[in-house]
Amino acid sequence: MKTEFKQFAENIRLTDNQEDDAKTKYKGVCKKLHTSYYNKSYDGGTKFLFGSYKTKTNVRPLTEKQDVDAIFKIPKETYEKFKNYTSNGPAALLQEVKDYLKEKYTTTDKIKAWGKVVLVNFIDKTHNVEVLPAYEKDDDTFIIPNSENGGSWDKFDPRKQISDFLSSNSTTNGLTAELARMIKTWVNNTSSCKYKSYVLLTDVIKFLQIHFTTGADYSEYSDVVKCFFQYLKNSCDEDIKSNVETALNRAIKAIDFENEDKPEEASEEWRKIFGLEFPLVKSNPSKENNSNTRVFTNPSAPYGYN
């Protein structure tokens, strides 16, 4: 299934236009906050991107759940002011950030402060921005507001996972990012699966420290996916285990069809895992002419810019 997995990887990768749209939105949010908190020109130094848009492990088709995670670095005096509040300083900080953003984003669906972040929902419902106001410490970690349970100030270190990801992705020649995107597509195609992106990426990194440590060719992606589900079955939380077992059984069945030279049936099984973004092979090779030529559909053609 080399051809199909290569096409699948292209189908779920964000286009240049989509990446540019995300950049425009999160940079706009952070620039507005910079002008509200600092008396100096904006050079991008007060924003810090993390999460799937930093590692480029986000996927398409885009959904409303795919937020851009960005830190806005607040001045020390702002942190100290809200830290000294006697009643839920974190909630007060989030409310102030929300109020500043409402000055610019007057036509968005809504701007909501909750938990640790302020969420800016855009009318087109893509690339909504979750901005996390945070104070950067000398050790490169952050102190972030948590408005829940009366309010607290928590330590946050997003740079650790980013560093681990970059190291793994370099060692595996890009397989870390590709596997993460494939597994995220499985999660999006499995409505009952509650598998957080942060945990997912950590699991992918750990898996590739043991298996396929130097990467894999597209012809090996069937085995990569199957082996990951086998690994995950033995380490995942109970609440997603049944989802993992179902996916593993389908991957095994798909590989059996591949070995029987039945790519049509194999692609149907992979589609049960990944959804319509995985190409469907329309027919099996005839016994009279056992060529390697295949015909498959490309359901993501309307998205394609790459």
Please describe what this structure looks like.
- Strand 4 and strand 5 (129-136) form a beta hairpin.
- It is elongated and about 75 Å long.
- Strands 1, 2, 3, 4, 5, 6 and 7 form a seven-stranded mixed sheet that branches.
- The two termini are 21 Å apart.
- It has two domains: 2-9 and 161-303, no CATH class; 15-158, 2-Layer Sandwich (Beta Polymerase, domain 2), CATH 3.30.460.
- The chain contains eleven helices and seven strands.
- Helix 2 packs across helix 5 (89-104) and helix 4 packs across helix 5 (89-104).
- The chain has 306 residues and is an alpha+beta fold.
- Residues 285-300 have a biased composition (Polar residues).
- It holds the Pfam family SMODS.
- This is Nucleotidyltransferase.
**Which band does the percent of strand residues land in?**
5-15%
Radius of gyration: 22 Å
Instruction: Bin the helical content.
Output: 40-55%
Question: pLDDT under 50 segments (min length 5)?
Answer: 299-306
Q: How many strand segments?
A: 7
Number of discrete helical segments: 11
Series of H and E elements: HHEHEHHEEEEEHHHHHH
Mean model confidence by pLDDT: 92
Structural class designation: alpha+beta
Pfam families: SMODS
InterPro entries: NT_2-5OAS_ClassI-CCAase, NT_sf
GO molecular function: nucleotidyltransferase activity
Protein name: Nucleotidyltransferase
